């Protein structure tokens, strides 16, 4: 381990992850406070409705959005490393254009489908207009360009600051809504305003950093022109878009499916368990956000990015094991204290789902390694197979075992995704000598 930290890239990954962790610890606690106020300030059914409304808007945005932050990291980070500013402008311009187009499509789709799906997912006619108003957040949810810009410029400290703003505002508003007895309207308005403010600050940071770097006209939207000058652009953005759509259907859409099969109360219980699971898996998600930009500065034909991935996976897997044990020990009293005794059933779900922590955390480098090897289609196939089998498991096990079946299916889905991603990653490593590194003169042709 001492030898690992002698590697500057490994230290950079841990350092940037630490920046994000500094805000995510506070964000997780503030998020629990928000959910606790909502859970205690409303009936379990209304709390489940709030969860479903938020999950619906996020599912629509995730299903349509392009992973423009990955596109900027994939093509923009090497360009900046070689001081190819023109190339970077093309990358960010295409990214911004994709955000605008996908945001408009997602907004229209979400608004049109809500009357058709609202009753099925558990949104009552009395809450329909609140849900419709919440859907106006969808365009800001689809935009990932500012995140990609800050990651490629290595300003994870600014991302850390921004990530604390939304949960801070949401927690403050939830406390006011709880003690003010504002009910469902007060909580949904709080979630709306906090999300909008957080997204606005992210754009502000990105614009300010571009000016500081003296990169002008980087947010001039374009589609066809920049795409012609970036070889492989459309293949990458469409492949990652489809892969993330599948991912969102499996993750954010899980609460929607649970709500359809078992009702909004079960969706609320599953949301509580997922909240603890996501909070416990934060270290891996933070390392992935700093790992991907770092390896994009390396030659994929060398062993360096692959060794870095193995070391990062080992570290994350060890942390995951410790976190899973901690969750099992403190989960029950924490849920009872924060949410109340009526949500204790979610602890049983969490016990099953905590086993997936080690798998998901240890497997976090796989997707990034496939991207650096230009094997994004293999990552898509892995996501698709895992999501399809997970959906079948979720529907079948939930039907026969109830909400506990949903937890077992979630564990199975995590294992399937890691397995299907590992196979092409091993193949890419064995053929690494055929991979090419970024060259400025090739980018201009």
What's the alpha carbon Rg, rounded to whole Å?
Answer: 21 Å
What share of residues are in beta strands?
under 5%
What is the overall pLDDT average?
81
Q: What gap, in angstroms, lies between the N and C termini?
A: 43 Å
For the biggest sheet, the summary is: none
The SSE string, one letter per element, is: HHHHHHHHHHHHHHHHHHHHH
Low-confidence runs of at least 5 consecutive residues: none
Helical stretch tally:
21
Number of domains: 1
Sum up the overall morphology in one term. globular
Structural class: mainly alpha
Q: How much helicity do the residues have?
A: over 70%
Count the beta strands: 0
Give a concise summary.
The protein is mainly alpha-helical and 445 residues long. It has 21 helices and no strands.
Give structural notes:
- The protein is globular.
- The longest helix is centred in the first third of the chain and has 37 residues, at 85-121.
- It has one domain.
- The protein contains 21 helices and no strands.
- It has 445 residues and is mainly alpha-helical.
- Helix 1 (8-41) packs parallel to helix 15 (304-338), helix 2 crosses helix 13 (264-280) and helix 15 (304-338) packs antiparallel against helix 17 (355-362).
- It has helices spanning 8-41, 44-64, 68-81, 85-121, 128-134, 138-142, 145-152, 156-179, 183-212, 224-229, 233-250, 252-262, 264-280, 282-295, 304-338, 345-353, 355-362, 365-372, 376-401, 403-430, 440-443.
Element layout with pairings:
Elements lengths: L7 H34 L2 H21 L3 H14 L3 H37 L6 H7 L3 H5 L2 H8 L3 H24 L3 H30 L11 H6 L3 H18 L1 H11 L1 H17 L1 H14 L8 H35 L6 H9 L1 H8 L2 H8 L3 H26 L1 H28 L9 H4 L2
Helix pairs in contact: 1-8, 1-14, 1-15, 2-4, 2-9, 2-11, 2-12, 2-13, 3-4, 3-7, 3-11, 7-9, 8-9, 11-19, 12-13, 12-19, 13-16, 14-15, 14-18, 15-16, 15-17, 16-20, 17-20, 18-20, 19-20
């Amino acid at each position: 381990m001492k030898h690992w930290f002698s590697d500057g890239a490994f230290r950079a990954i841990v350092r940037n992850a630490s920046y994000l962790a500094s805000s995510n610890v506070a964000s997780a606690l503030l998020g629990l406070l928000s959910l606790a106020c909502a859970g205690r300030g409303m009936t379990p059914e209304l709390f489940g409705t709030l969860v479903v409304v938020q999950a619906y808007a996020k599912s629509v945005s995730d299903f349509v959005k392009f992973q423009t932050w990955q596109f900027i990291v994939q093509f923009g980070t090497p360009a900046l490393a070689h001081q190819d500013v023109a190339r970077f402008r093309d990358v960010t311009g295409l990214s911004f254009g994709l955000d605008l187009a996908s945001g408009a499509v997602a907004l229209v789709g979400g608004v049109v489908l809500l009357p058709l799906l609202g009753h099925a997912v558990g949104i009552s006619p009395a809450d329909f207009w609140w849900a419709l108003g919440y859907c106006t957040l969808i365009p800001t949810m689809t935009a990932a360009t500012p995140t990609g810009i800050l990651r490629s410029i290595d300003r994870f400290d600014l991302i850390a600051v921004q990530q604390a703003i939304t949960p801070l505002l949401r927690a403050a508003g939830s406390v006011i809504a709880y003690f003010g007895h504002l009910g469902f309207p007060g909580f949904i308005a709080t979630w709306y305003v906090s999300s909008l403010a957080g997204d606005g600050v992210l754009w502000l940071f990105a614009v300010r950093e571009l000016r500081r770097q003296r990169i002008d006209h980087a947010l001039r939207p374009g589609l066809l022109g920049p795409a012609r000058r970036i070889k492989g652009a459309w293949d990458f953005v469409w492949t990652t878009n489809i892969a993330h759509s599948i991912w969102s259907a499996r993750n954010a859409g899980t609460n929607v499916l649970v709500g359809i099969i078992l009702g909004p109360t079960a969706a609320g219980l599953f949301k509580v368990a997922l909240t603890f699971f996501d909070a416990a898996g934060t270290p891996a998600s933070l390392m992935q956000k700093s790992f991907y930009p770092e390896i994009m500065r390396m030659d994929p034909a060398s062993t360096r990015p692959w060794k870095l991935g193995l070391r990062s996976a080992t570290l994350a897997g060890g942390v995951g094991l410790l976190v899973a044990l901690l969750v099992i020990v403190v989960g029950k009293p924490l849920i009872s204290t924060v949410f109340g005794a009526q949500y204790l059933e979610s602890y049983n779900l969490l016990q099953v789902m905590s086993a997936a922590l080690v798998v998901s955390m240890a497997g976090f480098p796989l997707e990034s390694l496939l991207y650096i090897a230009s094997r994004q289609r293999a990552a898509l196939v892995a996501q698709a197979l895992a999501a399809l089998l997970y959906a079948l498991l979720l529907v079948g096990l939930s039907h026969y075992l109830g909400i506990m079946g949903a937890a077992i299916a979630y564990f199975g889905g995590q294992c399937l995704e890691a397995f299907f991603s590992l196979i092409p990653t091993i193949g890419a490593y064995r053929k690494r000598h055929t991979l090419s590194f970024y060259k400025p003169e090739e980018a201009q042709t």
